[in-house]
Amino acid sequence: MDLLTLIITNYYLKIMARFVEKRMKRFLLGGIRYIVKAPAPETINNLVGIEKILIIRPNFRLGNALISTPVIDAFRERFPSARIDYLATDKTWPLLQQRPVDHLHLLSRTAILRPWQCVTLLRRLRAQRYDLAVQVSGGSTSGFIVTRLIGARYSMGSGKGHQRWYNIEAEVSHHMPMMPSSI
Description:
This protein is of the alpha/beta class. The chain has helices at residues 3-9, 11-35, 62-67, 69-78, 93-96, 115-127, 141-149; strands spanning 52-56, 83-89, 103-107, 132-135, 154-157, 168-169.
């Protein structure tokens, strides 16, 4: 029996794995806050030269991925000639296959056991040189970390607290994903 199967089938190991995952995210978030400076504020209407967009929603819940799909259409309408990619999970990508995205990048739940997969994914995303990284969910630490580490020219997402996290900060309602009013 491999480690992932053992964790999935054992309640206590699953609780411990979630604890370790949250601690690692908190550690990474603290490092990013310390190292990466706050981005300059922008508005969606002032963005120029947007040719590559990455929409980020690394959540394993199907419903959360489904409610983020209107964002794809909004960006496709606002930037019709842009390449639009989507970072999803290995559980949610089937919902996105028929959406107007050019490429799906996948994050696996097993990445917690194989951190080199996360590093490889981040390097691959960074190599794409995205113009705009859009973190769709309001409270996703994973999404925030990816948004900041891929090195996109601009970032968009929902801020937390009083600190500026993105060039374009948008509001998130509990029923709809992050969507700037000007899109």
